[in-house]
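Re: beginner question about structure tokens

> Can someone show what the tokenized structure looks like for a real chain? I only ever see the sequence side.

Sure, here's an example I had lying around. Input first:
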Amino acid sequence: MLTPRWLLLHVVFAAAVIATGFLAWWQWDRAHEAGGSFQNLGYALQWPLFGVFTLCMWFWLIRMEVHRRDDGPARYGAEPAASAPEPQPVRKRPLVPPPAPRVDADEDPVLAEYNRYLAELDEAEQRAR
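And the corresponding structure tokens:
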């Protein structure tokens, strides 16, 4: 947690939390001035939420880093150099689903007409290529 990268992250997160506090205070003062409005009051209540979110993100990043160090590289997909790569799983279903069964005009005339229209568009596009 004391590497240059983490020190910079600590400074950025601390600055963001302090900035949201100042912005909340500023909006609170603006809401109570003669030209203030409910919008300023809303912002005054919204900025602390941004600060809390920033603190949560800071905490989550630190926690993820600690867990990453504790669990080692195996949990995050990095394997030791000595082991062979695992075979890729075989796909059980196709990437593109099979076409839906045709709809007769007797079953649903509107859907059948729409399907004919789409087929005409597809044929026109195929001819244009």
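Each token stands for a local structural state, so reading them left to right follows the chain. Residues 64 and 70 are 10 Å apart (CA to CA).
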